[in-house]
């Protein structure tokens, strides 16, 4: 074990959320001397993810002795990106007392996925077609990019050109095509939102700045209506991240909960339910009679996630109890990695993953 201040010892490589990590223990401290600290470094980055870590030291009998939660950290796509740091966990003398007779120190690491939106996997080169097709003229002879759909959006009738073949990724949008009409009128979407909608259909990314500038809720409504799943999930993530808990009233939470249920916004629904569980005293006088009954299951899942006595499962499969306790971002990551539908309810996600796990097991048996 390391014997000097700011000297570390590394754990074996471990895997979570499709990425590899190492834990670095500073037994003599990293910032404060003789105060044990820990760092978690991500290796072999495949995609940016945002994590929070809980570090728990266990005594010789396997009981929790001391634990701390790290600040959230975003691991980017660099080979060696940021680290999750948890400092001043316990005194060095306390740590030494937890070392087992075989000179093994047991540290439990719990990683929590905070944000994950599947990357827009359309070919980014398609954006050139969208940009090449933009012009102020409705004369087809003056257009380039072979666009065959013309949209006039908003009260100012702002013009956008698109390609029906590409918009098939968003069927409700492609189905607006009418060969008997020279252009398609869209009145229920703001032109800036519609431009972002097309941008995502052609493989573009929606940044936090873009979404905040156009209003995340407007983007959610448009993306939900016209079937642009990536934009809907990204706008939902930004909207949830922009909520300030100290300004969130009980009425706001209920309004957002009903809105989330109507649009199948599972991340927002989860945030609302966990807030209700945490601040339950503020909701005792609220009328829940108009809240759909199907939310009760998700409310129970939120209660389960707040319990400290969660049983650890060594089963690598997807049992229903384990899946129901997962956060929606973890479920979405699993769905995306298995190439399954991501924009679905929690119950649908659990069913899809269970079915996928059974199918995989059957295929393995047949081989």
Automatic annotation (TrEMBL):
BTB domain sequence ranges: 147-210
Superkingdom of origin organism: Eukaryota
Listed name of the protein: BTB domain-containing protein
Organism of derivation: Thalassiosira oceanica
Matching PROSITE patterns: BTB (PS50097)
GO BP, sorted A to Z: protein ubiquitination
InterPro entries membership: BPM1-6, BTB/POZ_dom, SKP1/BTB/POZ_sf
């Amino acid at each position: 074990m390391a014997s000097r201040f700011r000297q570390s010892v590394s754990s074996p490589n471990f895997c979570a959320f499709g990425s590899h990590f190492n834990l670095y223990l500073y037994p003599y401290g990293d910032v404060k001397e003789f105060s044990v600290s820990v760092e978690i470094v991500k290796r072999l980055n495949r995609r940016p993810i945002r994590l929070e870590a809980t570090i728990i030291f266990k005594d010789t009998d396997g009981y929790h002795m001391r634990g701390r939660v790290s600040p959230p950290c975003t691991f980017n796509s660099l080979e060696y990106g940021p680290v999750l740091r948890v400092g001043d966990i316990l005194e060095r003398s306390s740590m030494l007392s937890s070392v087992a007779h075989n000179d093994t120190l047991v540290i439990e690491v719990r990683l929590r996925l905070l944000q994950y939106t599947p990357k827009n996997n359309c070919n980014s080169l398609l954006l050139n077609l969208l940009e090449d097709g933009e012009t102020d003229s409705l004369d087809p002879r003056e257009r380039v990019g072979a666009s065959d759909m013309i949209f006039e959006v908003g009260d100012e009738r702002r013009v956008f050109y698109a390609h029906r073949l590409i918009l098939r990724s968003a069927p409700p949008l492609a189905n607006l095509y009418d060969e008997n009409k020279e252009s398609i009128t869209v009145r229920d979407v703001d032109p800036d939102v519609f431009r972002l909608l097309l941008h995502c259909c052609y493989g573009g990314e929606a940044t936090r700045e873009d979404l905040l500038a156009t209003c995340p809720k407007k983007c959610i409504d448009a993306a939900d209506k016209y079937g642009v799943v990536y934009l809907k999930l990204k706008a939902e993530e930004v909207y949830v991240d922009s909520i300030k808990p100290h300004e969130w009233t009980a009425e706001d939470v209920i309004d957002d909960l009903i809105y989330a249920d109507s649009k199948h916004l599972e991340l927002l629904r989860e945030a609302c339910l966990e807030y209700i569980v945490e601040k339950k005293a503020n909701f005792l006088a609220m009328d829940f009679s108009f809240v759909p009954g199907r939310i009760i299951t998700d409310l129970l899942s939120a209660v389960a996630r707040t319990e400290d006595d969660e049983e650890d499962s060594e089963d690598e499969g997807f049992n229903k109890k384990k899946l129901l306790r997962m956060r929606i971002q973890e479920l979405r990551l699993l769905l995306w990695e298995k190439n399954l539908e991501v924009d679905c309810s929690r119950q649908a996600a659990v069913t899809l993953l269970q079915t996928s796990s059974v199918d995989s097991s059957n295929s393995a048996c047949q081989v």
